[in-house]
Design brief:
By secondary structure, the chain is an alpha+beta fold. The chain has 6 helices and 16 strands. 16% of the residues lie in helices and 23% in strands. Strand 2 and strand 3 form a beta hairpin. The protein starts with 37 loop residues before the first strand and ends in a 37-residue tail after the last helix. The C terminus is likely disordered.
Length: 332
């Protein structure tokens, strides 16, 4: 052995190790493809999917049967709805990658296999009725879901991903409202997640079990600093943060504003403009700003304006707004 190497198990440590700060440099050796563990709800059973292996969580009272509920601590949630599109029928818990997906529900992620449309709002797969369920009901081919980063009460430093399916978003909204009325943040409590026994497909139910003590809540705050938490919620990728956006800053709104601006400049063509976007206030050009001062001086009336100088009333089709009442936003 070379003389400049100290045995790894030696009790005599080199000077540079004394007082050295803990860093995450060893994370550089971990393959980004390893991902993070996912809590699956396939077949109304809770399972941990890790590195392609699926392990069903057992019932603590009966280890031979699957768990009917789990206790977790919700660390963080993506404020928007995420989207998943599969060319074939998607099965909950599947490890197959989606053909197209969006972490913020506004536009597809750049690394999606096949981007279906520049923005989600106008994508044909996002239209209601683009998918018919096995029960014959209308749905969307591109499914909405809420990405949650969560841990278990006994291991607060190991985050998991859970995707809350569309049918469960209403219950999640009600749970958030329940906590808000009591002035409690969702990452301050232990949450019991179970299945609705009356639902044919996995539908989650949420219930507050109890508050974390001071020590546990302090650990939660430390876990929130982990990069993997924002990777789980979809707010960060392996290459860095996703460009920040909010549901009201979609490209459709920007296009709408340009259309209205053009309508103000060319009133005759305004009636043909059609777009789907958030409500836009009427342009200022439609207001007769000089009408009152002119009427106050009858002795010197203003000359008649040419026919083309008086803008016609801008007629813009009422925008169609698709409101998702289940779009949940958590306050940190």
């Amino acid at each position: 052995m070379a003389t400049n190497i100290i045995p790894f198990e030696s009790k005599t440590l080199p000077a540079y190790l004394k007082g050295v700060e803990k860093t995450a440099i060893n994370d550089d050796l971990v393959s980004s493809g390893a991902g993070f563990p996912v809590i699956s709800i396939k077949g109304k059973t809770f399972a941990i999917v890790r590195a392609g292996e699926r392990e069903i969580l057992p019932n603590p009272k009966d280890p031979d049967s699957p768990a009917t509920n789990i206790d977790v601590v919700l660390l963080k949630a993506n404020k928007g709805l995420s989207k998943l599109y599969y060319a074939k029928k998607y099965e909950e818990g599947s490890d197959d990658k989606p053909l197209c997906y969006s972490s913020d529900g506004i536009k597809p992620n750049a690394d999606a296999q096949e981007i279906q449309n520049p923005v989600c709002a106008t994508c044909r797969h996002n239209e209601w009725g683009s998918r018919i369920t096995d029960a014959g009901k209308k749905g969307k081919a591109c499914q909405d879901n809420k990405r949650l980063a969560m841990t278990t009460p006994d291991q607060l430093n190991e985050p998991y991903l859970m995707r809350v399916p569309p049918a469960s978003l209403g219950n999640l909204t009600e749970y958030a409202q329940f906590l808000a009325k009591r002035g409690v943040k969702y990452n301050m409590v232990v949450t019991k997640i179970s299945f609705d026994p009356d639902a044919a497909t996995p539908k989650l139910m949420f219930k507050a079990v109890g508050l974390l003590d001071d020590a546990a809540y302090a650990q939660v705050q430390e876990s929130l600093k982990l990069d993997v938490v924002e990777m789980i919620t979809g707010e960060r990728t392996d290459n860095g943060f996703i460009e920040p956006t909010t549901p009201n800053e979609s490209e459709a709104k920007q296009v709408a504003e340009k259309v209205v601006a053009a309508a103000a400049a060319k009133p005759a063509a305004a009636t043909t403009a059609k777009f789907v976007a958030p409500e836009v206030k009427p342009v200022e050009a439609a207001k007769p700003a000089a009408a009152t001062p002119a009427a106050a001086k009858p002795a010197a009336p203003a000359p008649a304006a040419p026919a083309t100088a008086k803008p016609a009333a801008v007629s813009v089709e009422e925008p169609e707004i698709e409101v998702d009442l289940d779009n949940l936003s958590f306050d940190d």
